[in-house]
Amino acid sequence: MSSTSCTVLCVDDDPSIVSSMTRLLKLEGFRVFSTSLELAAIEMAEVGEPEAILLDVSMPSRSGLSILSEFRRHPRFSEVPIIIVSGMDDHHTVQAAKNLGANAFVSKPFEPDLLVLQIQELIHAKRKERSHAAKF
């Protein structure tokens, strides 16, 4: 699947992580916009209309799980694939993320190729689902 027409939002409070994910994804052909301000995540998504969202869990002002929950309640983003990318990969956190609607969980430090593949697969599945639904 070509990544050239896929838009991804990266939300992480660590600017170096945001920078490295942005650089990686742009090299793979994704359109990327990002924020290290967790309080701006929903607003950024409204402007950029991502096809996938990468979201950290541990952030200073607001939990990524809280943001995940807000995305899932938002009519425009309730079905957008969300991948949690976090160093907090204990069973409780992973399960909470899944229960709140995360489509995948990637542990930091992440393997770049696996992160890209995960994003591509989720976007492809979502596009296929929309295409199938449009036929009926």
Write up what this structure looks like.
This protein has a single domain (about 5-135), classed as 3-Layer(aba) Sandwich (Rossmann fold). The chain has helices spanning about 15-25, 40-50, 65-75, 90-100, 110-135, and strands spanning about 5-10, 30-35, 50-55, 80-85, 105. The chain contains five helices and five strands, in the order E-H-E-H-E-H-E-H-E-H. About 45% of the residues lie in helices and about 15% in strands. The protein is an alpha/beta fold and about 140 residues long. A five-stranded parallel beta sheet has the order 2-1-3-4-5, sandwiched between helices. The longest helix has 23 residues, at about 110-135.
Shape: globular
Q: Give the neighbour order of strands across the main sheet.
A: 2-1-3-4-5
Radius of gyration over all CA atoms, rounded: 14 Å
CATH topology: Rossmann fold
Compute the number of strand runs.
5
Profile the largest sheet: 5 strands, parallel
Q: For the residues shown, what is the average pLDDT?
A: 91
Spans with pLDDT under 50 lasting ≥5 residues? none
Order of helical and strand elements: EHEHEHEHEH
For the record, what is the CATH homologous superfamily label? Response regulator
Q: What is the name of the CATH class?
A: Alpha Beta
